[in-house]
């Protein structure tokens, strides 16, 4: 009986550690760990972030996104304008051939306006991405704590800070 309990406990641990990591593939594109920061219950906006890797020999473009949690969903970027950082809607986000594009806080991201539902910490919600070549890709966005920083961004920030 003890062996059975250990197997069950070990399996539960394995699957719980894999539950946080999730990725989605469509043709040559890989969308890694879509996530959103937890927002207050009174919020009317939220954002989603993830990395898109293109393993193909042709660039693709994210041209639209939609989610049932929002009245309106837009592609956004932070840009430097008149000495200030401003958030602006963009028509597309290019994913280079044999390269990747990170959607992250302070950069490209997906904005949700007029939230119909406020997703809670740990929940997942649907997001449909529309690409010029890869077409429609359904993903699930995980709501992370407001302090969450993905492992890949931690490494990039550490590398970046060493050079300055």
Q: How many whole angstroms does the radius of gyration measure?
A: 18 Å
Largest sheet features: 11 strands, mixed
The secondary structure category is alpha+beta
| Number of DSSP strand runs | 11
Q: Termini, distance in Å?
A: 58 Å
Mean pLDDT: 84
Unreliable stretches = 1-19, 157-164
Question: What is the approximate shape?
Answer: globular
The proportion of residues in beta strands is over 45%
What is the overall number of helices?
2
H/E series? HEEEEEEEEEEEH
State the share of residues found in helices, binned by percent: 10-25%
Helices and strands, with pairings:
Layout: H1 2-19, E1 23-26, E2 29-37, E3 45-54, E4 60-66, E5 70-81, E6 84-89, E7 93-95, E8 99-103, E9 109-115, E10 124-131, E11 135-144, H2 151-162
């Amino acid at each position: 009986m003890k062996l059975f309990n250990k197997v069950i406990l070990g399996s539960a641990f394995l699957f719980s550690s894999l539950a946080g990591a999730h990725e989605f593939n469509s043709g040559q594109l890989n969308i890694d760990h879509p996530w959103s920061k937890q927002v207050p219950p009174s919020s009317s906006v939220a954002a989603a972030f993830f990395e898109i890797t293109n393993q193909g020999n042709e660039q693709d473009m994210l041209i639209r996104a939609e989610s049932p949690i929002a009245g309106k969903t837009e592609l956004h970027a932070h840009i430097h304008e008149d000495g200030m950082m401003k958030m602006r809607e963009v028509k597309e986000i290019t994913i280079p051939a044999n390269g990747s594009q990170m959607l992250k806080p302070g950069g490209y991201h997906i904005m949700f306006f007029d939230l119909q539902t406020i997703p809670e910490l740990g929940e997942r919600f649907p997001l449909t991405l529309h690409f010029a070549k890869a077409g429609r890709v359904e993903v699930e966005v995980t709501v992370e704590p407001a302090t969450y920083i993905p492992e890949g961004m931690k490494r990039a920030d550490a590398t970046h800070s060493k050079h300055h």
